[in-house]
């Protein structure tokens, strides 16, 4: 069966640090088909998946998605590390690894998410840097 062999984890980082999120997927068909990994970013509340009432003026879950990085391979395994260098508080949010699996007929999407929390202002904790 098709499955994720490595999924990204929630991360808490200090501002200015580098962050990596890993995502690996193994397809279920013959080795000669295409897999695609897409990283998406949701600038939103950590609890956006929880049952909340969203005012019409608020951004609803998912509508703030923008494609971060895309990788395509032909084969039954795909892996990609999303690298974020010198993270800022504005990088905080949910990062979603989507795999598009076109092995068996219509393409299917598989998704896993992780949340990045960024603490502190850059340089505040280490004035000498």
From TrEMBL:
SMART domains: IG
One Pfam family in the UniProt entry: V-set
Annotated ranges, domain Ig-like: 2-113
Domain of life the protein comes from: Eukaryota
Any single biological process term in GO: negative regulation of neuron apoptotic process
An annotated GO cellular component: extracellular region
Entry keyword set: Disulfide bond, Immunoglobulin domain, Signal
Keyword Cell division part of the UniProt annotation: no
PANTHER family in UniProt: V-SET AND TRANSMEMBRANE DOMAIN-CONTAINING PROTEIN, V-SET AND TRANSMEMBRANE DOMAIN-CONTAINING PROTEIN 2-LIKE PROTEIN
The protein, known as: V-set and transmembrane domain-containing protein 2-like protein
Source organism: Nothocercus nigrocapillus
Name of the encoding gene: Vstm2l
